[in-house]
Amino acid sequence: FAKRRHYTIFAQILSCHMKRYCLPVDDLNVNVELKAMRSIRLRVKPDGIYVSAPYGTSPGILREFVLRNLGWIRKALKRLDERQASCGNPLSQEEINAFILRCKSRLEYWQEVMGLYATNVSFKLMKSRWGSCNPLSRNISINVRLCRYPNECTDYIIVHELAHIAHRNHSAEFWSLVEKYIPHWRSLRKRLRGMS
User: Fold this and answer.
1) Cα–Cα distance between 47 and 69 in angstroms, integer?
2) Closest Cα to residue 163, out of 173, 151, 153?
């Protein structure tokens, strides 16, 4: 217990000095960026939840801030889901089942290649995120809407989420790991964001 507490304190101290990192709160992954500013700012975007905070703000303070605003965050995510749900035809169960089988196969492949393994993988209909990963529990969720996109987009999301097991934040090391396996990840990310 003492070792685990020591590790937790060390991780919190380390994250305080990082400009960008991922902060797990409840069942959400919050993208934190520390910068020269006076107050904490919260944004909910189609590709994730973002918090900007002054340098030196501890993960504990940010976690409390997110928890206080948890109701608003969930409402914002629901609005995004409803807004995007009105676009396109609904997925059929056949499409979803076929995608899950294909995705499980690709996941097994990438886990062996990267040497990073998820504890549990779930498939959900999410319209505000393509995937998510809790680095502590190693639980990964994949959006079944990827079935309407090329297989390489699915590979990118799988590699992206597996990379979070090794790197909790979107640091240079994280993107370097993603690029090692998906060199053209930028173009795939743009496609998933509807930019091309």
Assistant:
1) 18
2) 173
Contact 144, 96 (CB under 8 A): yes
* Coil, strand or helix at 20: strand
- Global confidence as pTM: 0.58
Q: Among 79, 78, 85, 65, which Cα is nearest to 25's?
A: 65
CA distance 110 to 113: 5
Say whether 131 sits in a helix, a strand or coil. Answer: strand
Cβ atoms < 10 Å from Cβ of 193 = 12
pLDDT in tens, 152-182: 999 999 999 999 999 988 899 999 999 999 9
Query: What is the C-alpha to C-alpha distance for residues 4 and 132, in angstroms, rounded to an integer?
Result: 25
Nearest CA-CA partner of 24 in 79, 63, 74: 63
Instruction: Label each residue of 87-121 as H, E or C.
Output: CCCCCCHHHHHHHHHHHHHHHHHHHHHHCCCCCEE
Q: Could you report the per-residue pLDDT of 28-65, keeping only the tens digit for each? A: 888 899 998 999 999 988 767 899 999 999 999 999 99
User: 121 by DSSP, 3-state: which?
Assistant: strand
Tell me the per-residue pLDDT of 79-131, one tens digit each, with 9 for 90 and over. 776 565 545 667 888 888 999 999 999 999 999 999 999 999 999 888 778 99
CA torsion angle 48 54 55 60 (round to 10): -70
Cβ(109)–Cβ(151) below 8 Å: no
